[in-house]
Write a structure and sequence with these properties.
The protein is an alpha+beta fold. 32% of the residues lie in helices and 33% in strands.
């Protein structure tokens, strides 16, 4: 390798390995995708092979998704606090749905939102 190639590789490796801190400029959103899919998390622009995508890091699943503009049905901008509250509400809803599916009876001793 030449010196220029070594310099480029060192810079490239440093950029690739750099952790991206969550800054004040990080945008959060509820992203609704055609096909009844929803993701809530940090969003950013992404370009792959000349195509533009919306990248969503789903806070609930920990997965990262990329969608083209034509796949996006809705985009609701959120603050970090609103995003966390939304995830908590969704998790509570999943618990209630699972209790219903299992035939769990609601009584005064077992409140609906006990967490």
């Amino acid at each position: 390798m030449t010196d220029a190639e070594n310099d480029f590789k060192a810079i490239f490796d440093a950029v690739q390995g750099a952790a991206e801190p969550i800054a004040d400029t990080t945008r959060f959103a509820l992203v609704e995708i055609f096909g009844h899919r929803r993701h809530v998390g940090a969003i950013s622009d992404l370009e792959i092979a000349g195509g533009r995508f919306l990248q969503v890091h789903d806070i609930d699943t920990g997965k990262t998704h990329a969608y083209g503009a034509s796949s996006i049905f809705g985009l609701t901008m959120l603050t970090a606090a609103e995003m966390v509250e939304y995830v908590k509400e969704q998790q509570a809803h999943k618990v209630r749905a699972e209790r219903y599916r299992l035939g769990y009876e609601q009584t005064a001793e077992t409140p609906d939102d006990d967490f």
